[in-house]
């Protein structure tokens, strides 16, 4: 199923998702390159809320750029299958070899503001991440490792501790809290 169809069928969980869904649909229908970073004002990213099979743990990485514990994910970079992007990014950022979707459907969506920053010695202007989140599952007993150019630690937390570990209030309250609240529908 293509992203436009998935978004049309997606039932928003709250007001934030409803408004962001409208904007994602508007941008997709307007055309333009949203799948690469060549679009410097807004482009697609995919994130993952990685949980243990019993839903008692969530995986976070300490992201160097943001100086905060955060979910895992990254840029589409031309890939239109955003679930594949989320899976790839989790494997790259955590070292987990076995991670699988709890569902192949969109778990959450959000438009994220990214402040201007330096990356690899180059300035990146402020822009938007048009983010699609997937619920993934992995075994906390499987070994993890960090990806030094992106994060310095990877760890499992209780879902509530995962949200609290973030030093970014908006993410803690609006995103991670929402992701945890939605977990009750995925036993």
Describe what this molecule looks like in 3D.
The protein is an alpha+beta fold and 187 residues long. The chain has one domain (3-185): Alpha-Beta Complex (Nucleoside Triphosphate Pyrophosphohydrolase), CATH 3.90.79.10. 30% of the residues lie in helices and 31% in strands. It has 5 helices and 10 strands, in the order ααββββαββββββαα. The protein has helices at 3-9, 15-30, 82-94, 159-165, 169-182; strands at residues 42-51, 58-63, 68-70, 72-75, 99-101, 108-114, 117-119, 122-124, 127-138, 151-157. The strands form 3 sheets. Strands 1, 4, 5, 6 and 9 form a 5-stranded mixed sheet that branches. A 3-stranded antiparallel sheet has the order 3-2-10. The radius of gyration is 16 Å and the shape is globular. It starts with a helix and ends in a 5-residue tail after the last helix. The model has no long low-confidence stretch (mean pLDDT 93).
């Amino acid at each position: 199923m293509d992203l436009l169809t998935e978004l049309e069928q997606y039932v928003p969980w709250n007001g934030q998702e409803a408004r962001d869904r409208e904007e994602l649909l508007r941008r997709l229908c307007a055309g333009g390159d949203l799948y690469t970073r060549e679009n410097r004002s807004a482009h697609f990213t995919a994130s993952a809320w990685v949980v243990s099979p019993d839903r008692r743990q969530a995986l976070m990485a300490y992201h160097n750029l943001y100086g905060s514990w955060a979910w895992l994910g990254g840029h589409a970079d031309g890939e239109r299958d955003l679930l594949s992007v989320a899976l790839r990014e989790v494997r790259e950022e955590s070292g987990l070899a076995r991670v699988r979707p709890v569902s192949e459907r969109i778990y959450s969506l959000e438009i994220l503001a990214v402040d201007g920053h330096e990356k690899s010695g180059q300035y990146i202007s402020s822009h938007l991440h048009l983010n699609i989140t997937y619920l993934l599952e992995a075994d906390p007993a499987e070994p993890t490792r960090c990806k030094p150019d992106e994060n310095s630690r990877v760890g499992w937390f209780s879902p509530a501790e995962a949200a609290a570990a973030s030093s970014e209030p908006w993410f803690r309250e609006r995103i991670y809290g929402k992701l945890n609240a939605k977990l009750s529908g995925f036993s």
